[in-house]
Design brief:
Layout lengths: L5 H14 L6 H8 L3 H13 L3 E4 L5 E4 L8 H7 L18 H26 L3 H14 L13
Antiparallel strand pairs: 1-2
Helix pairs in contact: 2-3, 4-5
Organism: Novosphingobium silvae
GO molecular function, one term: DNA-binding transcription factor activity
InterPro entries: Tscrpt_reg_Rrf2 (IPR000944), WH-like_DNA-bd_sf (IPR036388), WH_DNA-bd_sf (IPR036390)
Length: 154
């Protein structure tokens, strides 16, 4: 089954934005992470509506992160993406009234609910500042300078 990597992509974009002083244009971000600028604009629209980024118009315009990285959590970003489904599995609903199906669905439903709550709690405990610090530590450990134009080329 193909995994949905959009959350990872959004976090990727935000962390790159955090490394750039001033507003970032969609085209610039698209070149850095090798993605279509239209996809960047779609991502930014949702983040702007959630108050995580702001848009600046004009020649030197683009987008900037609206809040301190220390207060933006993975859960905030997840919710800005309209809280997509976390799991690919679900309950079967092919035999209404079947007591076996009801029993199985009740057990699976509880397990899914508990797993979802646990994951969302974990998302709430991880900030973009923590991810940024981890990124910086990895760059230092690899003896690299933080130059966003070459990070992906290395």
């Amino acid at each position: 089954m193909r995994r949905d990597s959009r959350m990872s992509g959004v976090l990727h974009v935000l962390l790159h934005m955090a490394e750039i002083d001033g507003p970032v244009m969609s085209e610039t971000m698209a070149k850095i992470i090798e993605i279509n600028p239209v996809v960047i604009r779609r991502i930014m629209a949702g983040l702007r509506e959630a108050g995580l980024v702001r848009s600046e118009k004009g020649h030197d315009g683009g987008r900037t992160i609206e809040r301190d990285l220390a207060i933006i959590t993975l859960r905030d970003v997840y919710q800005a993406r309209n809280s997509p489904e976390l799991f690919g599995m679900g309950n079967r609903a092919d035999a209404p009234g079947c007591l076996v199906e009801e029993s199985v669905n009740a057990a699976l439903g509880r397990a899914f609910d508990e797993a979802r709550a646990l994951l969302l709690d974990r998302f709430a405990s991880v900030t973009l500042a923590q991810l940024s610090a981890d990124f910086h530590a990895r760059m230092v450990a690899n003896g690299k300078d933080i130059n966003l134009r070459i990070i992906h080329a290395a």
